[in-house]
Amino acid sequence: MGRMNMSYSDLLLWWSVSISWSAIFLIVVSLYLYWDRHKRHLEGAGILTRFSLRDFVFVWVLTGLLGLYIVSIYRGSSTIFAAGNIVVEVILLVYTFGKRIRK
Amino acid sequence: MIALSVVLGFFNEYKAEKIIDDLRQSVSLKAVVIRDGKPAEIDSRLVVPGDIVSVYVGDIVPADMRVIESKDVEVNESVLTGESFAVEKSPASIDIKHPTAQQLTNYFFMSTVIVHGSGRGVVVATGRQTQFGSISRSLARSRPETEFQRGVRKYGNMLITLALALVIGIFALNALVGHPLIDSMLFSLAVAVGLVPELMPAIVTISLSQAARRMAKKHVVVKRQVSIEDFGNMDILCTDKTGTLTSGSISLKEYWSCTENRDQRILEYSLLCNSAAVGEKITGNPMDVAIWEYAHSNGIRENLKSYSIVEQIPFDYQRRMMSAVVKTGTGLILITKGAPESVVPRCKHAELDGESRPIDALQNTINSKLAEHSAAGYRTLAIAYRRVEPKRSYSAEEESDLTFLGLLIFTDPPKKDARQAFDKLKELGVDVKILTGDNELVAAKICEELSIPVYRVVKGSELNQMSLTEIRAAAEETTIFARITPEQKLDIIKALKANKHVVGFMGDGVNDAPALFEADVGLSVDSAVDVSKDAADIVLLHKDLLVLANGIEEGRKIFGNTTKYILMGTSSNFGNMFSAAGASLFLPFLPMLPMQILFMNLFYDVANMTLPSDNVDEEYTKLPRHWDIAFVRKFTLFFGPFSSLYDFLTFGIMLFIFNASPALFHSGWFVESFWTEVLVIFVIRTRRIPFFTSRPGKWLTALTLSCVAIGTILPFTVLGNFLGFTPLPIEYWALLILMVATYLLLVDAGKVFFYKICRF
Question: Cβ A55–B753 below 8 Å, yes or no?
Answer without folding.
Answer: yes
